[in-house]
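Appendix B. Extra example for self-study. Work through it before the problem class; the solution is given directly after the inputs so you can check yourself.
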Amino acid sequence: MAKAFECCETHHHHPAAEVVKNRMLSDDEFFGVADLFKMFGDSTRLKILYALQREELCVCDIADLIGMTQSAVSHQLRVLKGSRLVKYRRAGKTVFYSLADDHVQTILSQGIEHIEEL
Amino acid sequence: MAKAFECCETHHHHPAAEVVKNRMLSDDEFFGVADLFKMFGDSTRLKILYALQREELCVCDIADLIGMTQSAVSHQLRVLKGSRLVKYRRAGKTVFYSLADDHVQTILSQGIEHIEEL
DNA sequence: CACTCATATGAACAAGTGTTCATATGATAA
DNA sequence: TTATCATATGAACACTTGTTCATATGAGTG
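Solution. Structure tokens for the complete assembly:
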């Protein structure tokens, strides 16, 4: 066994710290999870995802629904698409967006639930 | 019944849009949820929360564990405390932080789970 | 083809955020 | 008291992010 874990090199610490250290995820994993949550960390994106919970909607509808510019919505949809949180379907001039999978809705509900309880 | 919902004032839209419109949350609710997720949207905060999953840790331990400055960690703990995601307990010179409630861990796990599946 | 409509995108700007460095606070020990 | 240790905090800075405005793309229509 290596010597006990220290941080400031001046005192010993909770033995728990060493245990936790071995269970930490990789940096990449943390960055990945952070990026995921970042998507839910903006009210505009949140409104878009919430609006798409029931069924697919076109960009124009979404924009009106959440009271934002078509441009702003399109920019955000691009970001959401990049994070694979939404998918789209083209129908003529119109593009319909929808949630990519059930996980998205689960995370969303979890957040809302947490807030409602406070 | 009011007239059908329109956005660009030039064409009619999915009737679904109108239904969804009536189910939207208030702006304040969306901002609240966004602020919550924002806390999970930074890898440093994520590492802190993850480290606290098992037991309370002092600032010094956390800093070493995630390889960050004591100052940086302290600043983030302040933010996390402000969002009521962590609580603290003082013991002499040392301050021990821990997760505020089970909800925090649930959201955290949900995010990690989503990433692992991709 | 030209024209319209729905959507996408690029550049610019303002606002927000996380880290660093220096320093302050507050508790303990000598 | 003074010294030391753990933590907190303020200011400055670089970096990121979301919106706006103008314009481009691309599909449909006449």
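Self-check: The longest strand of chain B covers residues 86-91. If your reasoning did not lead you there, revisit section 3.
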